[in-house]
Amino acid sequence: MDQYILLHRDGVVNVRQDAPISSPDQFVFLPFALEAFFEMERQGFKPVVLVNEEGLNDKSLSPEDHKAIVENMKTSIVEEGGLVHDVMVCPSALAPWEKCAFPKPGLLQIAAAKHKFDLSQTWFISDRWDCLEAGWAAGCKNALVRSGKPFKTIEKLRNSQRQPEFIERDILGAVLRILRLSKVEA
């Protein structure tokens, strides 16, 4: 059975901006993100990038600019030896905003249905509390990275009964830990 890793884009793959990304030139990879995609490809994992694209919802981002952002991201990853199996976006024809925007689990559930994987056996790497909530609601294994803007999330975790399976500094640390854990479980 294929193994998938779900990744929230902003704050995990690219630098989280204070405002939603509205053009391709605003997309900047975080350190070690390209290496993480290379490692996932090398180990046979299929990464699916999940995006809450607020700009598409409020019309501040054109569909053409969104497509250019996605294509530039995918091209850069492939040039470094990685691969993006899919990019799932909220909102879309499959996922209206009110059903898929984090903390709702809709986008994760749509990805699982489309690619036929078991969410309970799937990792979701994110940097925000609302993403953790979506992962918990979907039944995923959750990893939190501190590369986005995790301060509010870490504060909430201090007083929460629910915790991610682990916290790592960045996407590469999270991916390497998931790869080690998957070998132990096999």
Give the secondary structure arrangement, pairings included.
Blueprint: E1 3-8, H1 33-42, E2 45-52, H2 54-58, H3 63-79, E3 86-90, H4 97-100, H5 106-115, E4 123-126, H6 129-138, E5 141-145, H7 151-158, E6 166-168, H8 171-185
Helix pairs in contact: 1-8
Q: How many domain regions? A: 1
Q: State the total count of DSSP E strands.
A: 6
Q: Please give the CATH class.
A: Alpha Beta
Q: H/E element string?
A: EHEHHEHHEHEHEH
Structural class estimated from helices and strands: alpha/beta
Main β-sheet, in a few words? 6 strands, parallel
**Annotated CATH topology:** Rossmann fold
Radius of gyration: 15 Å
Measured distance between first and last alpha carbons: 12 Å
> What would the principal axes of the Cα set say about the shape?
globular
CATH superfamily: HAD superfamily/HAD-like
Instruction: Report the portion of residues in β strands.
Output: 15-25%
Order of neighbouring strands in the sheet with most strands: 3-2-1-4-5-6
CATH architecture assignment name: 3-Layer(aba) Sandwich
Concise synopsis of the structure shown:
With 186 residues, the chain is an alpha/beta fold.
Protein described:
The protein is an alpha/beta fold. It has a single domain (3-185), classed as Rossmann fold. The protein is built from eight helices and six strands. The chain has helices at 33-42, 54-58, 63-79, 97-100, 106-115, 129-138, 151-158, 171-185, and strands spanning 3-8, 45-52, 86-90, 123-126, 141-145, 166-168. A six-stranded parallel β-sheet has the order 3-2-1-4-5-6, with helices on both faces. Helix 1 (33-42) runs parallel beside helix 8. The mean pLDDT is 92.
